[in-house]
């Protein structure tokens, strides 16, 4: 009887010890994973570069405008779809504007990654030295495809490191180093943004030349705003927002 009791006691002791060992060997519960840090995306603002940039509820020029951005007004960019920007303003929480009618404010540092144009045909940069080499690739060793004088207008198409991919006013593509360019300064052309009127009925083209597609005929005495110039051709905007190119012989500046 005594042996039987000792047997059961030994079994119970072994069971208790095995349970204690399992409890000791059990790994501690995993520490809770820290919440991922979500970096806030920097806000991008644009300003209107035309007299009145129309705002639409949907990205469609045929739809009814719901408001305008006056030249110099700022709007925060929410989304980009091809040539359209979805923006928000104090008066319009959600609206769409054509990218060619706005640009990143010149206050952005040209050397920062934030400073990039949105679109349109207004120049983005100008040569800051005479004899600026325009190269085939974004390296100092690449071939020189052209050389331009100081204040030549340049249109950005891409940026990689210290180099901008640009187009010259005649459409020639190439690369320039950011050390030798500066933000476009509208003040160098005193007529930029000024109003002209047509001397008579005249054709408006999609580009600077009669070989480009004809957009429409502009009637006599119509007001147009000068936006850009290539040789004897002015890029202008009508009061209804239409943009195109007219030869300067058809235009007279309003006093």
What is the rounded Rg?
Answer: 33 Å
Give the low-confidence spans: 38-42, 106-121
Q: What proportion of the residues is helical, as a percent range?
A: under 10%
Supply the CATH architecture of one domain. Answer: Roll
- State the name of the first-level CATH class of one domain: Mainly Beta
What's the CATH H-level superfamily name of one domain? SH3 Domains
CATH T-level topology of one domain: SH3 type barrels
Order the strands across the largest sheet as they lie in space. 6-5-4-1-7
Look at the structure and give the mean pLDDT.
75
Helix count from the secondary structure assignment: 1
Biggest beta sheet attributes: 5 strands, antiparallel
Distance N terminus to C terminus?
Answer: 126 Å
Strand content: 35-45%
Shape: elongated
Multimeric state of these chains? single chain
Total count of strands: 21
Structural class of the secondary structure composition?
A: mainly beta
State the order of secondary-structure elements, H for helix, E for strand: HEEEEEEEEEEEEEEEEEEEEE
């Amino acid at each position: 009887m005594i042996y039987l009791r000792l047997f059961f006691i030994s079994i119970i002791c072994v069971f208790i010890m095995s349970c204690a060992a399992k409890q000791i060997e059990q790994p501690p519960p995993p520490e809770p994973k820290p919440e991922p840090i979500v970096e806030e995306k920097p806000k991008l603002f644009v300003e209107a570069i035309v007299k009145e940039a129309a705002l639409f509820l949907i990205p469609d020029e045929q739809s009814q405008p719901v408001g305008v951005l006056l030249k110099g007004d700022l709007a925060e960019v929410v989304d980009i779809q091809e040539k359209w920007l979805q923006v928000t303003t104090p008066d319009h929480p959600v609206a769409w504007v054509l990218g060619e009618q706005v640009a990143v404010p010149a206050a952005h540092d040209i050397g920062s990654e934030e400073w990039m144009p949105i679109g349109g045909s207004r120049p983005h940069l100008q040569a800051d030295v005479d004899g600026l080499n325009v190269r085939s690739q974004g390296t100092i060793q690449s071939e020189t495809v052209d050389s331009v004088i100081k204040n030549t207008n340049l249109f950005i198409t891409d940026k990689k490191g210290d180099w901008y991919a640009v187009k010259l006013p005649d459409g020639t593509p190439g690369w320039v180093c950011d050390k030798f360019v500066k933000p476009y300064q509208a003040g160098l052309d005193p007529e930029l943004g000024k109003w002209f009127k047509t001397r008579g009925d005249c054709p408006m083209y999609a580009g600077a030349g009669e070989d480009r597609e004809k957009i429409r005929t502009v009637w006599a005495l119509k007001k147009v705003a000068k936006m850009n110039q290539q040789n004897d051709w002015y890029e202008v905007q009508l009061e209804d927002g239409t943009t195109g190119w007219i030869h300067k012989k058809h235009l007279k500046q309003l006093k």
